[in-house]
Amino acid sequence: MGTTMRLLILGATGRTGRQLLAGALEQGHAVTALVRDRSRVDVQHPALTVREGAVTDPGAVEAAMQGQDAVLSALGSASPRELLGAELMTVSIRNVTAAMGHAGVRRIVLLSALGAGESAGFAPRSLRLVFRTAFRAIGRDKAASERILRESDLDWTVVYPPQLSDGPKTDACRHGVEMQVTGMSKVSRADTAHLMLTLLDDSASIRRSVSIAAQ
User: Fold this and answer.
1) First and final CA of the chain: distance in angstroms?
2) 38-42, 126-130, 175-179: which range is least confident on average?
3) What is the CATH number of the domain that holds 72?
4) Domain that holds residue 177
5) pLDDT tens-digit readout, 179-210
6) How many domains does the chain have?
7) Nearest-CA neighbor of 22 among 2, 41, 39?
8) Is residue 142 within 8 Å of residue 117, measured between CB atoms?
9) Is residue 1 part of a domain?
């Protein structure tokens, strides 16, 4: 395990976010979770602070960012309305990068999806097509949010998993910077969350994209 940190987790009530929350606490980090509804956080831990607020609210993000060392984002659209609007990531990451700049926080690991954004260059054709057709609006939103990060001076890493499953952590995955992925790979949210936590103090992944796939 690396150095313990004060972490702000975004999307902590989602299926991957819950894995991030559990993993971060298990590793001894002090965690702040910014959530829209604190009743959805079913974890109690002395190292966990739950703040209620929307990531689309700049004030809520600014307040939650104070005193943090790094940010882990597992944000994603959770409702049909958000899928149609498809601006959640763009608005949220704009708020997050601004708050990080004001608070002096430099490190962020962002969960995206293989086939979206810059990963189109090394993703399987089937996944690229998903974000050009049925999930075109989501793909545009993810790509726009990634551009905000890439154009910032922050120490960012974007993580690109393929299809996610709810299985346990297996450690039976491979990952690499802009790693070419072929076929219909599937990885667990637990393995993806573990990788995101591992990358926090991996200097080789700073300002790079990392993809993950099954062995």
Assistant:
1) 23
2) 126-130
3) 3.40.50.720
4) 6-214
5) 666 666 788 999 999 999 999 999 999 999 99
6) 1
7) 41
8) yes
9) no
